[in-house]
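User: Design a sequence. Structure:
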């Protein structure tokens, strides 16, 4: 195995270990949208509700208040062996992570294309004068997300130029959501994600490390769709394929 393939295999192994987290995305067993009237949910302690500003949970005494950023990270509370995630996606929702979830117990890795160096492409990063708030749809009908787009990535494939809008990623990097000609055929139909880090105006796009979003594995995710224009007219036969869970 070449050094390139070994590096990719190490990345893939780490990726699958992350997915197998006992309280990760594969452990989701439910999603409920909160009402403005306090109510109980099956198997969960106390009552839950929301108003325009926050979500609330009361077991005894004063309620616990959760004020969260729209489309941002959620927060969690423990309930025995479960973790209850509170998040804001339009309104507030609660999701239950259960380490005994069948999807998690049956997880056997992510099918992927074999790594090929030809799918490591160099592009140019073009930052906008100021980040542009960009509204995108979601895999949940009627829901939308708003993210900051700091710029776009321009690259060439088979002699043709292509442009992808990028969102802010972790640690100063970029998160690029896209579809391509394999979407809905060999790869998950709604989206895949690619991370990249700009350096001196350049960016390396390693499509071998294109990953599925959580919605590819579970019905209890609210993943964003790619922004307008982020469809590639050719097949990216690299990266993760449609999960076994959707086969």
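Assistant: Done.
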């Amino acid at each position: 195995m070449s050094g390139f393939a070994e590096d990719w295999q190490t990345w893939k192994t780490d990726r699958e270990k992350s997915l197998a987290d006992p309280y990760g995305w594969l452990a989701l067993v439910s999603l409920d949208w909160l009402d403005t009237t306090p109510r109980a949910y099956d198997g969960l302690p106390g009552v839950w509700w929301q108003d325009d500003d926050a979500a609330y949970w009361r077991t005894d005494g004063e309620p616990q208040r959760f004020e969260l950023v729209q489309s941002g990270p959620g927060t969690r509370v423990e309930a025995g062996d479960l973790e209850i995630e509170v998040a804001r996606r339009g309104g507030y929702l609660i999701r239950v992570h259960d380490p005994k979830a069948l999807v998690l117990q049956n997880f056997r890795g992510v099918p992927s294309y074999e790594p090929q160096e030809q799918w490591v492409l160099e592009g140019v990063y073009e930052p906008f004068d100021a980040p542009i708030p960009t509204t995108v749809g979601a895999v949940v009908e009627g829901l939308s997300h708003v993210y900051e787009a700091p710029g776009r990535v321009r690259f060439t494939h088979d002699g043709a130029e292509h442009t992808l809008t990028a969102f802010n990623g972790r640690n100063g990097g970029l998160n690029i959501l896209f579809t391509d000609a394999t979407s809905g055929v060999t790869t998950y139909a709604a989206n895949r994600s690619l991370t990249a880090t700009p350096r001196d105006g350049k960016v390396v796009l390693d499509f071998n490390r294109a990953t599925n979003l959580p919605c590819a594995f579970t019905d209890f995710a609210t993943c964003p769709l790619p922004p307008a224009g982020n469809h590639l007219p050719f097949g990216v036969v690299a990266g993760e394929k449609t999960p076994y869970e959707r086969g």
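The chain has a mean pLDDT of 95. Helices lie at 3-19, 102-105.
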